[in-house]
Structure formats: structure tokens, C-alpha cells
Automatic annotation (TrEMBL):
Protein name as it appears in the record: Aldehyde dehydrogenase family protein
Originating species: Nonomuraea spiralis
Aldehyde dehydrogenase domain mapped to chain residues: 14-470
Annotated active site: 248
Family recorded in the similarity comment: Belongs to the aldehyde dehydrogenase family.
Length: 478
């Protein structure tokens, strides 16, 4: 059983409540976890608030903060095999993904933001008043509630923890109830690294735990990655005391395949872009606009490539696609597939649950999809590829921008003019040209429209986790 980590100590929930976390490949319980209630939320926020002003943290030199973050990265690498296997068991992602993407990405984020600790600076600004010195300071926002999703629990925790701590904040971290185990282990490693008590606090639990944390008056900022619906609820929860918000929400990323694209390269990239982590990626390519002259070729090759992928347990080295996260989510994906069939989409491959005791679904390709179909408009978050043909290249921007989402987009073309003209006109936070979606610690990540508020990663994360204070000094005689 795992516990809560509050004020530098591990323990059970105040009321003794627990919940089970499952192995999605086997549909069996891995372990029980403490389920935080309102009393635990209050204790965690109180501990974080006290640590914010504790000289052990508040007066810690920036270089010392950097060493703590760097130590976490070292510990993540030292425990890489353990973390990768734990992520695969709890989340289902193929072990190769956990080893080659999740764990290295986690370490890289801590190292990148360790470098920022000594470079968070203000500026001296010329003002119009005589004999006046004006300068700015960047200061921590305060107590940050970090709420992470189940699709990449370890790496997305690092996306939030590393910049929040680099800027001198204190945090209360709540992972998704479906996948808490690598986050628990990460916090154990952070304790080993030597963070002062109360700087990092961990609450495991479900939606009620998250809601209590988001609504707590002692929280200054919320950083949330998850569904647009929950993001909207957090906006309402934060309105009373005007908490700062960073929201990375849903997506329905368009992938545009131009007539001049290298179809074989586009197929290889889009199969990965659509089916990476079984399609359980916010930026997954999930609606494919193909020039009608190439649509049949693209569709048949995509279907062949998807059908050739091996679906199975993530711990099997031969697995390409692991399970979906839960039975509930599998049924949601299947409902989208049934809806597409009802609407008249042509099923090319897949379209049903795959064999096995866990939550496996066949990679699915649809042709003859139209913009009005739900499968082309709603976030499926699963291994489903809807192909839509277009005739006029001038129409494609309007169609790509036609949804409420704007997290990511992809363009496949051999013409630089086409690539950059489309990239400028598509309303999305990230546009990938002839490549899959690969966030990096040094760049920006976040969405337009209903895909979120604010940006994570790179220098933009420093803006998200600091307040800017202006200091005015009159230099003349009083």
C-alpha cells in the first residue's frame, strides 16, 4: 500500500480511506493507495504554506535549488529500470516507450529547469519620473496545486514539478487515480534528494480530492493537464479567489497530407503520431485531411501499417500497442467507433476489442469520413484514425481550424511554402511539419481555444510560476 506525503512524512489518509490501482494489461489490482480527503488536503496545503516562508526553502540559494533538481534527475536515471517497469504496469504503455521516452524525458526536465534556477532575473526599466530607479523582481507565485493525468503520469509530473520548484514555489501534487505509482516513487526519490519538509507534498485520490485541492483558499496556483470539461470546472473553482491557472486540455489534432507529400513517410509518421501510447495522447494526430488524389493510397497504406502492429501487454518486448487505461475508457472508445459506423464511415481495419484479459483495442482506420461526424469532431483518445478527403487546398485551413480545440497540428508536404503558409494560419499551440509530436523541455507547450490556458516548458514555464513585482525608489532628497 502507498501513503500520502505531507510535511515531510508518509502516512495513511486521515479517515483510512483507500482505493485500488489496476494493471490495465491484466485487469488486476496492483496495490491499494491512500485516498486523501478534505482533512488531508488541508494538512498538505498548510504544510506547503509553512514551507514557502521557511528559511530552509525561502532563503535557499538558487544554486542550491539547482543542485536539488539535478539530484532528482540523477536519481531518476539511477532507478530508470524500476520506474519504467512501474510505469508500464500501472499505465500500460509499452516498456520501450517507458524506457526511451518517459524516464529520459523526466530526467531531462529536471535538468533543464535546474539550469534556470540561477537565471531567473528581473530588469531595470527606464521610467519617466526624474530621480527614480525602477526594477522588477520575479518571485514565486506561492503554493501550487499540480494535477496530472493518467496517460504520461511520470513525465507530466516532471513538466510541472521542475519549473514550479525552480522558481521557489512549494507544491501539492495530485496524480490521476488510475496511475499514481510512479508519482509516489518520484516523490520518494525527491525526499531522498533532500528537499526541505513541506516543499513537496503528495496527495493520491480521485476527482473529489482534486476538487478539494483546487477549491482550497490556501492554494495560489493550479496547473492541470487533462480533459477540457475538467479544465472548465477548475476555472469556476478558481474564480472566487482568482487563483492563477495553467491548463493543458483536450485536443483533436489535424494532420494535413498535401498532394506532393511523400506518402510512405507520411504513413510511417502518422501511424506513430496517431497510435503512440495507443492514441492516449492529447496531441495525437486524430483527424487526417488528405488530398483526394492521394486519399485511397494513404488510407490503404495506413490500414496495412496499423493492422501490422502487435497489440499486447506493455511488458512484452514485441508489443507495439499496449492496453487502454480502463474498461470505462475502452467502452468510450468503442462507442465512438460504433457512432462512426452508424454515421456512415467506412471501416477499413480494426473496429473492435482485441483479445486478452486487459483493456485492449484494435487499431482502427475509417475512410469516407466527413467533418460533421462525431469521430471527426470529438476527442476519442484511442487508436482510431479517421481519414477525410479534400479537393481544394484553400479549404483546408478552415476545416482544420473548425473545432474548439487547438493543441497541436501536423503538416506533410515537400513544399516549404505550403508548409510554412499553413503553419502560420493553423490555430494550434504546436505545429509539426513532416514529423511526429515530440515536446521538448526547452520549447513551448500548450493550446489555443479550448485546449488550454498558458504554456509549459522552456522559458514560458518561468512566466507561469512567477509573479513580477515592480520596485520604485526615489533617489532625490525627501
Amino acid at each position: 500500500m502507498t501513503g500520502l506525503y505531507i510535511g515531510g512524512a508518509w502516512g495513511p489518509a486521515a479517515d483510512g480511506a483507500t482505493f485500488a490501482t489496476l494493471d490495465p494489461a491484466e485487469a488486476t489490482v496492483i496495490t491499494e493507495c491512500a485516498e486523501a480527503g478534505p482533512a488531508d488536503v488541508d494538512r498538505a496545503v498548510t504544510a506547503a504554506r509553512a514551507a514557502l516562508d521557511d528559511p530552509a526553502w525561502a532563503q535557499l540559494p538558487a544554486a542550491a535549488r539547482a543542485r536539488l533538481l539535478w539530484k532528482v534527475a540523477d536519481l531518476v536515471e539511477e532507478h530508470a529500470d524500476e520506474l519504467a517497469e512501474l510505469e508500464t504496469r500501472d499505465n500500460g504503455q509499452p516498456l520501450a516507450v517507458a524506457r526511451n521516452v518517459t524516464v529520459p524525458g523526466t530526467a531531462e526536465h529536471f535538468r533543464y529547469f535546474a539550469g534556470w534556477c540561477t537565471k531567473i532575473e528581473g530588469s531595470v526599466l527606464p521610467v519617466s519620473y526624474p530621480d527614480t530607479l525602477h526594477y522588477t523582481r520575479r518571485e514565486p507565485v506561492g503554493v501550487c496545486a499540480l494535477i496530472t493525468p493518467w496517460n504520461f503520469p511520470l513525465m507530466i509530473a516532471a513538466w510541472k514539478l521542475a519549473p514550479a520548484l525552480a522558481c521557489g514555489n512549494t507544491v501539492v501534487l495530485k496524480p490521476a487515480e488510475q496511475t499514481p505509482l510512479t508519482t509516489v516513487r518520484l516523490v520518494e526519490l525527491m525526499e531522498l534528494a533532500g528537499f526541505p519538509p513541506g516543499v513537496v507534498n503528495l496527495l493520491t485520490g480521485g476527482a473529489e480530492t482534486g476538487a478539494a485541492l483546487a477549491g482550497h483558499a490556501g492554494v495560489d496556483k493550479i496547473s492541470f493537464t487533462g480533459s477540457t470539461a475538467v479544465g472548465r470546472s477548475l476555472v469556476h473553482a478558481s474564480a472566487g479567489d482568482l487563483k492563477r491557472l495553467t491548463l493543458e486540455l483536450g485536443g483533436k489534432a489535424p494532420s494535413i497530407i498535401a498532394a506532393d507529400a511523400d506518402i510512405d513517410a507520411a504513413v510511417a509518421g502518422n501511424v506513430q503520431g496517431a497510435l503512440f501510447n495507443s492514441g492516449q495522447v492529447c496531441a495525437a494526430y486524430s483527424r487526417f485531411y488528405v488530398d483526394r488524389k492521394r486519399a485511397d493510397e494513404f488510407t490503404s497504406k495506413m490500414a496495412a501499417a496499423a493492422a501490422a502492429l502487435k497489440v499486447g501487454p506493455g511488458l512484452d518486448p514485441a508489443t507495439d500497442l499496449g492496453p487502454l487505461i480502463s474498461e470505462e475508457h475502452l467502452m468510450s472508445v468503442d462507442a465512438h467507433v460504433r457512432s462512426a459506423l452508424y454515421d456512415g464511415a467506412q471501416l477499413v481495419t480494426g473496429g473492435r476489442r482485441a483479445d486478452g484479459p486487459g483493456f485492449f483495442y484494435q487499431p482502427t482506420v475509417f475512410a469516407e469520413v466527413t467533418d460533421t461526424m462525431a469521430v471527426a469532431r470529438e476527442e476519442v483518445f484511442g487508436p482510431v484514425i479517421p481519414v477525410l478527403a479534400y479537393d481544394d487546398p484553400e479549404e483546408i485551413v478552415g476545416r482544420a481550424n473548425g473545432l474548439e480545440y487547438g493543441l497541436a497540428a501536423s503538416i506533410w508536404t515537400n513544399d516549404l511554402s505550403t508548409a510554412h503558409r499553413l503553419a502560420a494560419r493553423i490555430r494550434a499551440g504546436a505545429v509539426f511539419i513532416n514529423m511526429i509530436h515530440v515536446p521538448d523541455a526547452a520549447t513551448t507547450w500548450g493550446g489555443y481555444k479550448a485546449s488550454g490556458w498558458g504554456r509549459e516548458m522552456g522559458p514560458y514555464a518561468i512566466d507561469a510560476y512567477t509573479e513580477v513585482k515592480g520596485v520604485w525608489t526615489h533617489l532625490g532628497r525627501v
